[in-house]
Design a protein that fits this description.
Chain B: Keywords: Cell membrane, Membrane, Transmembrane, Transmembrane helix, Transport. Chain B: It holds the Pfam family BPD_transp_1_N. Chain B: It is found in: Cell membrane. Chain B: Its main location: membrane. The complex is a heterodimer. Chain A is of the alpha/beta class. Among the domains of chain A are: 71 residues, no CATH class; 81 residues, no CATH class. The longest helix of chain A has 18 residues. The radius of gyration of chain A is 21 Å and the shape is globular. The radius of gyration of chain B is 24 Å and the shape is flat. By secondary structure, chain B is mostly helical. Chain B has 2 domains: 62 residues, no CATH class; 210 residues, MetI-like (MetI-like fold, Orthogonal Bundle). Chain B contains 13 helices and no strands. Helix content of chain B is 80%, strand content 0%. The chains are: A alpha/beta, B mainly alpha.
């Protein structure tokens, strides 16, 4: 799909939660690539399975959740074949993760220094002295003033933005190849958000790592990502590079998302929200998951689930409109002419 | 840290004032005349009056209270009505027996309670968890005098493993400590379990796992330190129940401790001894809870700040 070498290839990943009400397929056959050194955005509403996808990559799904199948190839090695012990060597070392809530993601009973040093101790066997030296370097790198002093402070003594910087310092301590950022700015002030995104980008260039940016915010995607996977109800519905996605969205869900977003680069009469709501797990449509909310849905859409198909230019779409079987209004491909010459 | 401890020590003053006042009033509000008790039922009115004057019983209550507190501060608890010996001498040897019993029982209940609670929480709803929680429910619900009698029946009388009564040898220690420690262990196990379950679902536990920390270390370092905070409170409060429990346990196992002294003295209406025992037990409780509060600061650094 992309000409670059991929650092992470997720194929048909399926993660379910087994509750009293039955199986909830939170991630239902997700497939995407993360090209080396690039940033992939995973976008979707809450409940679309984007966070579970991220947690599945590091196998941090806890009971009653379970990874049911698929493949997660990291540097050509399927992570799902690894033992728990081998997985531990990857977590926080080759693949790191930062989370949405900086206020609660740091352990309140240990100092910043203790928490960063722990990474060095686990993965590089460094002692307190060497670990502290490296921790100070990391804190400096993420732009925390007077890092020596911060080392002995507890998380409650820091602001939200500072804590997220500490989280990033901790995640990047061992210079990972891949950083998974799960809504890293959602809980922060707008000005701090921009700083944190900028910081992640800078560090990405400096360390040459790849990033998976999970967000519900298309603004964040536009600012930081090279490629985008749009998720809906546990499935990827559109995968494209970021320019194509914003200029020429194809899946009706992506179109709907973009229409509901205020934009400065286009004349816009009004914002149009997507009608209806995300279906609950126990009444998941049998056909296309988006069909009940889709303005173009035909009987085919309601009855049969489309597959995620290549449509050229490294773009993938899960929609009947772009297949030969499409028997609805041929005029719905209205987005096609908008395609610019570079496409 | 130091300022916190000093502040907490100052807060003890009103508590101790309350305790001494209550104990003092308790004695003066109970019916019966101490002078009459000392002199005996057949004593003449003039003898009783003479004793009343010598004991200061005719002084106004506030004066008597001040005298009482001054004496207590010098560890002078008066004389036992029964034996006419200084109350302090009477209490001293028994005090250490009760303290031993209480401390061993507390250690036992913390040890068993913590392990059971953690094991339960780590495998929530497993057979192991359910079994432990059912046992804990029994442990909490059993009156300890009954448990004591049952243990005595099985292990001393039927099996003959341990001596049924007394205190001092290692064998004599086992049954009373189990009797007294069981309820505490059950309460601590339940508290630890719910506290651990709460902490395990926190974001920072996920962070630790995402860092590649071994699950064992996630549980015992990252989770336990946070989960201990409410457990420590329970241990402190439990110590009060435990001290009350010593009265029954010591009676069942015929241990010459403070608890049994209280019972015997109440039976004999030996009020100065009762008064002194209550006072000492209250002060121990207050001091233990002070230690608990101070140990919080080691677990939760935020307390130090306000």
């Amino acid at each position: 799909m992309s000409t670059n070498e991929s650092i992470l290839e997720v194929t048909d990943l399926r993660t379910s939660f087994f509750t009293e009400g039955g199986e909830v397929k939170a991630v239902d056959g997700v497939t995407f690539d993360v090209p080396a050194g690039k940033t992939l955005g995973i976008v979707g509403e809450s409940g679309s399975g984007k966070s579970i996808t991220a947690m599945s990559i590091l196998q941090l799904i806890s009971h009653p959740g379970k990874i049911k199948g698929g493949e997660i190839k990291f540097r050509g090695k399927n992570l799902l074949d690894l033992s728990e012990k081998e997985m531990r060597k990857i977590r926080g070392n080759q693949i790191s993760m930062i989370f949405q809530e900086p206020m609660t993601s740091l352990n309140p009973t240990y100092t910043v220094g203790q928490q960063i040093r722990e990474s060095y101790k686990i993965h590089q066997g460094l002692g307190k002295k060497e670990g502290s030296k490296r921790a100070i370097e990391m804190l400096k790198l993420v732009g925390i003033p007077s890092p020596e002093k911060r080392l002995d402070q507890y998380p409650f003594e820091l602001s939200g933005g500072m804590r997220q910087r500490v989280m990033i310092a901790m995640a990047l301590a061992c210079k990972p190849d891949l950083l998974i950022a799960d809504e890293p700015t959602t809980a922060l002030d707008v000005t701090i958000q921009a700083q944190i995104l900028e910081l992640i980008k800078e560090l990405q260039d400096e360390l040459g790592m790849s990033v998976v940016m999970i967000t519900h915010d298309l603004g964040v995607v536009a600012e930081t990502c090279d490629y985008v996977a749009v998720m809906y109800c546990g499935k990827v519905v559109e995968y494209a590079d970021v320019r194509t996605l914003f200029k020429n969205p194809r899946h009706p869900y992506t179109v709907g998302l973009l229409k509901s977003l205020p934009r400065s680069d286009r004349d816009q009469e009004e914002l149009t929200p997507i009608k209806g709501t995300v279906p609950s797990p126990d009444e998941m449509p049998v056909g296309c998951r988006f069909a009940p909310r889709c303005p173009f849905a035909t009987n085919l859409c309601h009855e049969k689930l489309p597959s995620l198909d290549d449509v050229g230019d490294g773009e993938q779409i899960r929609c009947w409109i772009y297949t030969d079987e499409w028997n609805g209004d041929p005029g719905v491909k209205v987005y096609e002419p908008e395609r610019t010459t570079e496409g | 840290m130091t300022t916190y401890i000093i502040r907490r020590l100052f807060q003890l003053i009103p508590v101790l004032f309350g305790v001494t006042l209550l104990v003092f009033l308790l004695m003066h509000l109970t019916p019966g005349n101490p002078a009459q008790l000392i002199a005996g039922e057949t004593a003449s009115q003039s003898t009783i009056e003479r004793i009343e004057v010598s004991m200061g019983l005719n002084d106004p209550l506030p004066v008597q209270y001040v005298n009482f507190v001054t004496d207590v501060a010098q560890l002078d608890f008066g004389y036992s009505y029964r034996n006419n010996t200084p109350v302090f001498e009477e209490i001293k040897p028994r005090f250490w027996i009760t303290m031993e019993l209480a401390i061993y029982s507390t250690i036992l209940s913390i040890f068993i309670g913590l392990i059971a609670g953690i094991v339960s929480a780590v495998r929530q709803y497993s057979v192991r968890d359910v079994t432990i929680m059912i046992i804990a429910l029994f442990g909490m619900s059993m009156p300890n005098f009954w448990l004591g009698l049952m243990l005595m029946n099985w292990f001393s009388i039927q099996l003959g493993w341990f001596p049924p009564t007394g205190w001092g040898s290692a064998g004599q220690v086992v049954l009373p400590v189990i009797t007294l420690g069981t309820a505490g262990a059950a309460v601590i196990a339940r508290m630890t379990r719910s506290s651990m379950l709460d902490v395990i679902s926190q974001d920072y536990i996920r962070t630790a796992r995402a860092k590649g920390v071994h699950e064992q270390i996630v549980i015992y370092r990252h989770a336990l330190k946070n989960a201990l905070i409410p457990v420590v409170t329970v241990v402190g409060l439990q110590f009060g129940t435990l001290l009350a429990g010593t009265v029954l346990t010591e009676t069942v196992f015929s241990i010459n401790g403070l608890g049994r002294l209280v019972i015997d003295s109440i039976m004999a209406r030996d009020f100065p001894v009762v008064q002194a025992c209550i006072l000492i037990i209250s002060v121990i409780f207050v001091v233990v809870n002070l230690i608990v509060d101070i140990s919080y600061t080691l677990l939760n650094k935020r307390i130090d700040m306000d």
